[in-house]
Structure formats: structure tokens, C-alpha cells
Design goal:
Length: 266
């Protein structure tokens, strides 16, 4: 019974999120820009690994985290404001299962959005370039899953949906834009006293920065990473997998803990 309830909730979340106008707007914009980037690279007869791929990485770094955060921000607080959270929690399923169903359903919607954008870009590129571009799908979806998890966490402790929306947008700005600017400011303020290794480790600790460097290395090789000023090698595969798992699992675990501790819900 519980398994069927979880599947039903996941499917319901997926269907509802595909109708969300904000998610649709961001997804369509990402798809159009991805197609435009692919068309430009094709028209310029540029190497997909030097132009189209890195350009799509930049687009994905901007749009996919925002889409994931927006998908997660109303998962719990939205139910609370609609006075349906009590009904949802009355189902014969644990709070962890309900949270997991919401995460999975919204992750499927995110996968559809990412697949649409990258799939259209790969279709336009055609030839041998399409499989290369589709290598972005799984890493990009993992990046989106991290921000979806963070959005769910914000949703569990927020009292109002508008507050949750403001927080996820602020989080997006912080990790995608201001984080790198802060590191640059740190270098300038300390007049280079902070070592390159320390800056590199700080870049790796940010999911957006780690994704960007991983994909740039995939398309253009370690030489481009060195040109960007990151002279330290990327962490090993196992360490990176552990980092991505932690970024996704810890916010979900904290969300489950908050939901478990709050026995009385409105």
C-alpha cells in the first residue's frame, strides 16, 4: 500500500509541476537559448568541445539551479498554506516517504525540462556532436537535484510561500553569482595572500562551481581549467561523488528531521 501511495504522490507531483507556469517559462527559455547556442556553433563551424559544449555548460549553470530551486520551494509550505498538509500527512505513509515522493516527482519534471533543452540542442547540432552534448544530461540533472533538495529544505521551515520563494532566489544568487565574486574579492582584499589551492577548494565546495569545472574539463580538457586560474587538480571521482551525494542527501535528511519534529501541523 505504501509503495502505491508513494508512486501515486510522485506522479501527482510530476503532473502538477509540468503545469507550473514559472517552471515552464524557465524551461522554455533554457531550451530556446540552448538551441540558439547550438545553431551559432553550427553556423560558425566551431568545435563542439570548444564552443557549443562550454556555452551550454554556462547556460545550464544559470538556469538549471534556478529551475530546481523553484520546483522545490513550495513543496511543503505550499501544502501548509492551502491547508492540505494535514490531509497529506494523514495518508498511510511516513513523512519521509511523502518527502521522497515529492522529491522524485519534481525531479522527474526537472529531468523533462533538462532533457528538452539539451535534446533540442543536440538535435540541432546533429552528426557526431549530438552524443557529446548529451553527456551533459546526467551531470546537469544532478546539479538540479542539489538545488531541488535545497529548495525542499527551505520549504520545510518557511512559514509562507513568498518567504520560501525569496529565500531560494537569494540562495541561487549566492551560489551561482556572488560566491565566485566573493572569492575574487577575497583574493583582491588579501592581495593574493590566500593560496591558489585554498581558492580551488572553495570553488569545489560550491555545487555550481564544481559542476562548471567538471564540465569544462570534460569538453576542453585540464588545460582550460588551468587557464581559468584553477591550478589544482579536481578531486577524484569518489570524492566528487561523495560531495554530490552530500549536497543532495543532507538537505533532504534535514527536511525529514524538521517534518518529523513538527508533529502538529496546520
Amino acid at each position: 500500500m505504501k509503495g502505491r501511495i508513494g508512486l501515486a504522490l510522485s506522479w501527482h507531483e510530476f503532473v502538477e509541476r509540468t503545469r507550473d507556469r514559472w517552471v515552464l517559462v524557465i524551461s522554455v527559455l533554457f531550451a530556446l537559448l540552448a538551441v540558439g547556442t547550438s545553431l551559432y556553433g553550427r553556423g560558425a563551424e566551431a568545435d563542439v568541445q570548444m564552443l557549443t559544449g562550454p556555452s551550454l555548460v554556462t547556460l545550464a549553470t544559470l538556469f538549471v539551479p534556478l529551475t530546481g530551486a523553484v520546483l522545490g520551494h513550495d513543496a511543503i509550505v505550499g501544502e501548509r498554506e492551502r491547508n492540505t498538509l494535514g490531509l497529506l500527512l494523514s495518508l498511510p505513509a511516513s513523512r519521509l516517504e511523502i518527502l521522497a515522493a515529492k522529491f522524485v516527482g519534481r525531479l522527474l519534471a526537472l529531468a523533462l525540462a533538462v532533457g528538452l533543452g539539451l535534446g533540442l540542442a543536440a538535435l540541432v547540432a546533429g552528426g557526431d556532436e549530438a552524443p557529446i552534448l548529451m553527456q551533459l544530461f546526467v551531470p546537469t540533472l544532478i546539479l538540479g537535484a542539489v538545488f531541488l533538495s535545497l529548495g525542499l529544505f527551505i520549504s520545510t521551515f518557511s512559514r509562507r510561500q513568498t518567504t520560501a520563494a525569496s529565500l531560494v532566489v537569494a540562495l541561487w544568487f549566492l551560489l551561482v553569482f556572488f560566491y565566485d565574486l566573493g572569492l575574487l574579492g577575497l583574493l583582491i582584499f588579501t592581495d593574493g595572500a590566500v593560496s591558489t589551492e585554498t581558492i580551488a577548494r572553495l570553488v569545489f565546495s560550491n555545487p555550481a562551481g564544481l559542476y562548471r569545472l567538471e564540465m569544462m574539463e570534460l569538453f576542453a580538457g585540464p588545460e582550460l581549467v588551468d587557464d581559468l586560474g584553477v591550478a589544482v587538480e579536481l578531486p577524484g571521482t569518489f570524492v566528487r561523488a561523495a560531495m554530490w551525494t552530500a549536497w543532495t542527501a543532507i538537505p533532504l535528511a534535514m527536511s525529514a528531521l524538521i517534518m518529523t519534529c513538527r508533529r502538529t501541523q496546520k
